[in-house]
Amino acid sequence: MYTMRSLAGIVCGLALILIPHKSLAEEKLGPAPDGSFSIVLIPDTQAYKGAGTKSQPDSVEQITNKIFEAHTDWIVSNLDRQKIAFVSHVGDIVDKNVDEQWKVAQSCMNKLHGKVPYGISVGNHDMTSNGDASLFQAYFPQSRFEKFEWYAGSFGGSPMGEHISGNNANSYQLFSAGGIDFIFLHLECNAPDDVLHWANELLVRYSNRKALITSHMGWGPRVAPKVADEFMTGEKGRMTWLKIHGARGNTPQQMWDKCYRQHANLVAVFSGDQSRTQAYKAATVGDHGNIVHELLQDYGSGWLRMYRFSPLPNRVRVEAITFDPVTEALCDGVKLVPARNEHQFEFEFSLQR
Predict the structure, then answer these.
(1) Which DSSP category does 329 fall into?
(2) I need a labelling partner for 276 at 20 to 30 A (CA). Which of 149, 202, 261, 342 fits?
């Protein structure tokens, strides 16, 4: 295994205020070139304000999430300009698993509904510690998506019932862009073995499609931190610890071993979860000699991530662009990850099977 730290640097980090700073020589996001298309990754959207929220527990104000609103507003306004083919949410949709926050989250995602294909990974904040995703399922059930041709289905649920892992808590989407056919899986945080068996079967069934996966946990502190500082100072890697499902759950490392590494068509795995790592990228050789790009984005401060795909003869160049959706200024260096080239980077993948 080798990290892309040595190839192109790691990605961006912490802004000092809720909306990112403008750089002195501010470079703006340009339109998508002809022949390209974009996939937008929405990082963890936990910045809720108002009554009973973690940030304002004593507030009596209505619950809002200005960062989440800015993300989905920008996406809707730029569907054509950026040729957006798909949107993926990395999970931790809410900060507290309560109806009041789910209503705001649903309102934000409703702006995308029927306008662009999208999927959502269920994060650890979006369910109980034993994997009960009942509230997520109430606001984003399979029935919400079944009318769309791009929505292909979801895992049926665990032996404990549909509320564990079922009813869109693990889903997959099929779409085509730039002449490329994709399967996009959205797997819950620490997906258990039965979910991974389902995912493996799908990746084999659709081996003629390029595969993308979003699952909430991926890269961050390799070993579970014992003190708070270790979330930032601990050795980074594919995490060997988990938060959900107890003994049934799989760590990111186990998900790699049991699923990701086995599939030659897998291009990239996206994650969030680690606001004190914020951004990281790795490139690892899978069992078939293919490179799997593992990409963490959890800015929490307003930055949005877009991947611009430009098909070339026998390959695709992917440009990762991190930017402020309010000003469209490119991320130019922040506190935890200060170098600009760690915010904006490129990689390629082959179109040959």
Answers:
(1) B
(2) 261
